[in-house]
Amino acid sequence: MPVELLFMIFECLHPRELCSLIRTCKRAADCLLSKHNIQFWEASLKNAPELPARPEFIHLLYSPHCHVCGRANVRTIAEFWLHRVCSKCLRKVTVWYEEAQAQAKTVSIELSELFAFPSFMSYFSVMNRSWERDNERHNLLLQLDVDRVIKEYQASDVSGDQDAFKEFAKRLAHRRQESEQFVVTADEWLEDEIERAREAAMTQRFDEILQRLRQSEWGPDIAVLSPDDLFEALESFPIVTQATKLTDRGWHEVLEALGDFLAKTRLRRLAAEMLATLNVRFTTLQEAIVAHYVHLPRTARMDCRPDAIDLASMPACRAIANRPHSEVVALADFAAVLPALAEEWENDVRKELTGHIRKLIKDIPADVDPLTLAISLFRCSTCDERFGPSGRSAFYMQYPAILGHECCRSFICTGRTAPEAEEDLYGDASRDVYKSWETMETDLPSQYGYGDQAPYNVACLDDGPLATGAIERMRRIVSALGLDPLHATVDEVNQFGIA
């Protein structure tokens, strides 16, 4: 192939690729390793501005093999001239400085002075440099370096010429400085190169895991996460951030490690879908409740009705609201079962309120409905805490007004947690969707924390001395009217003009 064509090809390649070509093709190796073709390396170096602009360094940087035995993955460049040596070969290619001095003496006493302690440190790159002059494990020189200096001395014909010998020694010192400076540069470059390769491998593995997840059954689940949240979640798993190629076996190990995270992510997606569906269906249910209770002419009793959250857990209501998301649920579907649901809810609430009153008024006859009695007062302790004396009129209520009291649907916010199983999705979403209907803003101090909604309950009703004291006062009022407190109803007392 014409040299011009080779030059055009090589000038487009990175030095790393030329090194690979040397190891794979003998003809290419003969061509690229020829001293007459250094222009190929110079052209290639233009594609790697981060490298030292010296072709002889390329093999050292990109061929991590021992220069003696060929052992692979020798990453450390030893403290001598352009050589990589593994630990096993190190003793074979190094020589203690006194032994090197003895070799030099066989040539010239003058030359051996360059190997004397500590002069040799100025002319040679030293491994395990130390001021312990008698320790044979320290102050090691490269035998090839020693041989090269002896040959150069013999070829230079400087023997007996003091000025020429000084110039010779100066060249050696300059070469040592240059080599050691390069070793530092090369070590830094290699560390950066290894880190870049590691980051590239990690990125490739991460991207492949992400692609496989998106193409798997978990794709719709991770799609609900933002890119930042997904990256942060996956990055927390060491098996995802390894700097190794992803194999099929490795993929199964990744799935096993991500199992809990993926399962929880799926639950969050299903919960979000359930929440969106119930938001629409509970709006329809609320409309059905209003249509069932409110008629013209309107009365105060019509406002004492259940909310959607009160009926959501009832089997008949749940069967409609929890239909597949693809089905359309109309107002007529809820209207058909609403009379039975409303009756069931009122019966349940009456039982709670009756039990509360009978704890406060223990002498009510068994055949008397406590909720109809004029002395049956319900005191709201929450209103007392929230509004103080200014809200005193809201503290005491009778049935059925207590059915519409907002505190009986509130509780202190404790924060929501993600569902732990798909069976919990409907219950959790039904509470969350009702919470999302209500305005959380309030004029109350933040320490109260009220605003979340709950099904109707009597947790806010007081059963202490303030409640019993109010009942006793009402008992005296009814007795003063000439009525029996244990039988007089609200309607009978109202005939006297007492509210």
Average pLDDT across residues? 82
Provide the β-strand percentage band. Answer: under 5%
The largest pleated sheet is described as:
2 strands, antiparallel
Helix content: 40-55%
Number of E-state strands: 6
Number of helices: 22
Order of helices and strands: HHHHHHEHHHEHHHHHHHHHEHEEHEHH
What's the alpha carbon Rg, rounded to whole Å?
45 Å
What are the low-pLDDT stretches, counting only 5+ consecutive residues below 50?
412-420, 436-451
- Secondary-structure-derived class: mainly alpha
Shape: elongated
End-to-end separation in angstroms reads 113 Å
- Order of strands, widest sheet: 1-2
Summarize the structure.
The protein is mainly alpha-helical.
Topology:
Blueprint (H helix, E strand, L loop, with lengths): L2 H8 L4 H10 L1 H7 L5 H8 L12 H5 L27 H4 E3 H9 L3 H4 L7 H4 L16 E3 H14 L5 H54 L3 H4 L4 H9 L12 H10 L1 H35 L14 H4 L3 H7 L9 H30 L17 E2 L1 H7 L8 E2 L12 E2 L13 H13 L14 E2 L11 H16 L9 H5 L5
Antiparallel strand pairs: 1-2, 3-4, 5-6
Helix pairs in contact: 2-3, 15-18, 15-20
Which descriptors apply to this entry?
single chain, 22 helices, 6 strands, 499 residues, two-stranded antiparallel sheet, two-stranded antiparallel ribbon, mainly alpha
Structural summary, described in words:
This protein has a two-stranded antiparallel sheet with strand order 1-2. The chain has 499 residues and is mainly α. It is built from 22 helices and six strands. α2 crosses α3, α15 crosses α18 (331-360) and α15 (259-293) crosses α20. The chain is elongated, with a radius of gyration of 45 Å.
